[in-house]
Automatic annotation (TrEMBL):
Name listed for the protein in its UniProt record: DUF1361 domain-containing protein
Keyword Transmembrane found: yes
Annotated Pfam families: DUF1361
Domain of life: Bacteria
Chain segments annotated as transmembrane: 35-52, 64-84, 104-124, 136-154, 185-207
InterPro entries attached to this UniProt entry: DUF1361
Assigned keywords, A-Z: Membrane, Transmembrane, Transmembrane helix
Length: 223
């Protein structure tokens, strides 16, 4: 199935991050599995988008199935950029070796989670483009970016979880309405949305250039 190689590379990056965490534990530090849990959560939208991409490629026009997968993907997508905010836990002491280790460790977790999110965004966007009109697919893409930032706000500031949509839907609704007047919610939503948008544009450009370059080489070889 297409995308398995990408999943393998992201798995290796995840294992590297976990390795840095294991090294941290060897320093007789308290074990905190929240990093590993958050990393696991960043894999959920990636797997959902992987399924959506392969299903739409194999079966074509399946708007209902894709719609359900897209809602599930959007519910968990904020877990990917969420780990950027874990950098706030960093305690800086330039004379302490663990400071530098923690910088590398936290960055590793944030990096692979962000990669998971961007690759999942590419796969789900490609699925939308197969099933829906291009304008609708691009609109869904643009809307999902600030929504991801808003999801990060709900998780970090409001301490909500993705599964609260099912477990505590009323609490989610109340938090959403209360957040409409919160400047932090708007700032975090827009800035994370902009960050994801710029990074995704770079990813899209690199992939499209690679595809076009491969096609030109193939055409030149056939002539």
């Amino acid at each position: 199935m297409e995308g398995l190689f990408s999943l393998l590379l992201l798995l290796l990056l995840s294992l590297l991050a976990v390795f840095f965490h294991l090294v941290r534990i060897l320093f007789n530090s308290p074990v905190d599995f929240s990093l590993d849990w958050n990393l696991f959560l960043s894999w959920i939208p990636l797997i959902i988008a992987f399924l959506a991409d392969n299903l739409t490629k194999r079966f074509g026009h399946i708007p209902v199935v894709l719609g359900i997968l897209s809602i599930a993907w959007l519910a968990f997508f904020p877990n990917a950029p969420y780990m950027i905010t874990d950098l706030a836990h960093l305690t800086v002491d330039y004379q302490r070796d663990l400071t530098w280790h923690d910088i590398i460790m936290l960055f590793s977790y944030a990096e692979v989670s962000l990669f998971n999110g961007l690759v999942s965004l590419y796969w789900i966007h490609r699925s939308w483009r197969r099933v829906f009109e291009r304008k609708a697919a691009n609109t869904l893409l643009l809307v999902s970016l600030p929504l991801a930032g808003f999801g990060v706000y709900l998780g970090r500031v409001r301490r909500m979880n993705s599964w609260d949509i099912i477990h505590e839907p009323q609490a989610i609704i109340n938090s959403v309405f209360e957040s409409l007047l919160d400047r932090t919610a708007w700032v975090l939503s827009m800035e994370i949305g902009m960050l994801l948008g710029i990074l995704y544009l770079v990813l899209w450009g690199v992939i499209r250039f690679r595809i076009r370059h491969s096609k030109k080489n193939t055409e030149s070889g056939n002539q």
